[in-house]
Each structure stands twice: as C-alpha cells, then as structure tokens.
C-alpha cells in the first residue's frame, strides 16, 4: 500500500487529467471528489470485506437471509486446478481482489484454456489497489472464482442493474445494456424518471422499461447499504429472479465524468460523508435478516 502523500499525489494527478482541475478534498463537494476522498481516507474493513467478490457473498447472505449470488462452481488460488471438464458449457471466471477482472466462457469446448489461465495468473500477481488507488482492495486475498453464467433468455448476459445508495437510500438506478457489445448506460430515479445525463458510454435511445421487481431490488440494495454513506449495489434480474453481482465503493474510481458536469455536484449533494468518529460503528449488519421474496 502506498504512503498517504504518494497516494494523494496520484489521486490528484489522475483527477486533474480527467477533470482539468484538482479535487477539493477539505471538504469534498462533488460526487467525484467524495470518491477521491474515500480512496484517500476511508479504511473501514467493511469496504475490504464487501469489495472481495467471495467474502461479499457471505456478507450479503448474512444480511438478506439468503444467497442471491450466482451459483459458485469453484474457488482456488491455483487456476490450473480449475476442473474445466466438469463445468457447465458456459461459465464466468473472476478474480476476487479487483474490479472488471472477469472472463466470460461461452463454450467450454472451444475455450482457449491457455489464454484464460495466463490471464488468471496475471490477475493473481497484480495488486489492484495500486492500479486504481483504492487501498481497501489491497488486503483482499487473491483468488479465482468460477460462477454460473446468467442468460437473459437470448443467450446473452442480462442488463446490469446498478443501484447507487446514498446514505441508505437508493437515489439512482443505472441500467447498462449490451455490456459486452455496444454498451449503453442510462440513469433513472426510483420512480423511473430518467436523469438527463450521460457518461462516456452514451445513452440508449429508446424505451427502457423498469425491472418488474424494482421495488425488491431497491429493498435489497438499501438493506446491504445499511450503516454506510455510499455504495453501488450491482444486480441482475433474470425472469423474475434477482441475482446479486457485487458491491462497488468507488464506481469508475471516481474518474468517469457525468455530463452535464453540474450533475457531479448534484450527486455530491446527495452524499453526506459519515463523520470520522462514526466510521468504526458504521457497518454493523442488521440484527435480523431482511427477507426478500423470490
């Protein structure tokens, strides 16, 4: 892990390259500045536990009272031990200690196993925190997990449903369509009024209906976010079934500008950072599990 002055310099330099100005951190005001502030100062174990793609499953099960993650086929520190021949035809391989480190295997029989194993070994050698300036990733044990492939019924992955929870309330529902093709991204209020904004992905132009279980998705996200000031909960809906993907504490590492830029400040206004003296007690899970109907 980098020293605080070196980390601050890297965060400021990358922020400047993205936004053309240095971040205001004392206090931070905008959404992107508050992410930068979190990367620099927030060391709660909760961020590490729930950024870990494997440990997050246990946390979510404890809070929700059931396991909503895709089926886990295998977990290892040695990718060469993956039992390819006994896996389903389609599956997903992920590293537990980073973000965006995944491999979609759509056909086990034609899979380039050597390339996948090389990629897994590269992930295991890499400290993601040094790439993203997100120190809460550094303590995560490097592991590889193999998960169920989720199919939207057409042979493709379902849309990503990402719920941004500010101080325990979902204020933004982000929908990513065609993630592995012509990716588009739209942002909505929970009443499905669309935010008049976009980021580098561009918007899907057309009608996007709300998920049929939006109320349950919001309830799940707010339960998982209880006691923290901001987190993004990534989910999927396949048919009427909800799946939990991951929990993200610094979306885009704070380096994905919103357009028009005024929305960076408006989203920042929705995020009240928990006082330092409150952080230690901020993440106790609820005493009773939150039961989510299937």
Strand and helix map with partners:
Blueprint: H1 4-19, H2 31-41, H3 45-51, H4 55-64, E1 72-76, E2 91-95, E3 102-105, H5 113-125, H6 128-132, E4 144-148, E5 160-166, E6 169-177, E7 184-188, H7 214-224, E8 230-238, E9 241-248, H8 262-269, H9 276-279
Antiparallel strand pairs: 1-4, 2-3, 2-4, 5-6, 5-8, 6-7, 8-9
Helix pairs in contact: 2-8
Largest sheet: 5 strands, antiparallel
Mean pLDDT: 93
Radius of gyration, Cα only, in angstroms?
Answer: 19 Å
Strand tally:
9
The termini sit apart by 41 Å
Report strand order across the widest sheet. 7-6-5-8-9
**What share of the residues does DSSP label as strand, in percent?**
15-25%
Q: How does the helix and strand content classify structurally?
A: alpha+beta
Helical percentage = 25-40%
Low-confidence stretches: 279-294
Overall shape: it is: globular
Helix and strand run: HHHHEEEHHEEEEHEEHH
């Amino acid at each position: 892990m980098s020293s605080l002055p070196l980390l601050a310099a890297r965060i400021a330099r990358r922020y400047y390259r993205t936004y053309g100005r240095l971040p205001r951190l004392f206090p931070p005001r905008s959404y992107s500045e508050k992410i930068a502030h979190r990367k620099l100062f927030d060391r709660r174990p909760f961020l590490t536990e729930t950024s870990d793609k494997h440990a997050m499953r246990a946390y979510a099960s404890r809070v929700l009272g059931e396991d909503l993650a895709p089926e886990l086929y295998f977990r290892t520190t040695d990718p060469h031990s993956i039992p390819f021949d006994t896996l389903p035809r389609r599956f997903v391989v992920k590293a537990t200690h980073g973000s965006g480190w995944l491999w979609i295997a759509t056909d086990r029989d034609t899979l380039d196993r050597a390339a996948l194993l090389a990629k897994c070994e590269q992930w295991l050698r890499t400290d993601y925190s040094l790439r993203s300036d997100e120190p809460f990733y550094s303590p995560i044990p490097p592991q590889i997990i193999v998960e169920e492939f989720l199919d939207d019924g057409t042979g493709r992955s379902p849309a990503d449903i990402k719920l941004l929870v500010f101080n325990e309330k979902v204020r933004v529902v982000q929908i990513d369509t065609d993630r592995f093709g012509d990716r588009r991204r739209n942002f909505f209020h929970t009443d499905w009024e669309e935010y008049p904004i976009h980021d580098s992905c561009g918007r899907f132009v057309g009608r996007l209906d709300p998920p049929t279980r939006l109320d349950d998705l919001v309830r799940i996200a707010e339960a998982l976010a209880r006691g923290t000031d901001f987190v993004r909960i990534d989910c999927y809906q396949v048919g009427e079934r909800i799946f939990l993907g991951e929990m993200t504490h610094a979306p885009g590492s704070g380096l994905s500008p919103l357009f028009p830029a005024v929305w960076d400040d408006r989203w920042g206004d929705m995020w009240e950072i928990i006082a330092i003296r409150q952080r230690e007690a901020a993440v106790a899970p609820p005493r009773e599990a939150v039961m989510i109907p299937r």
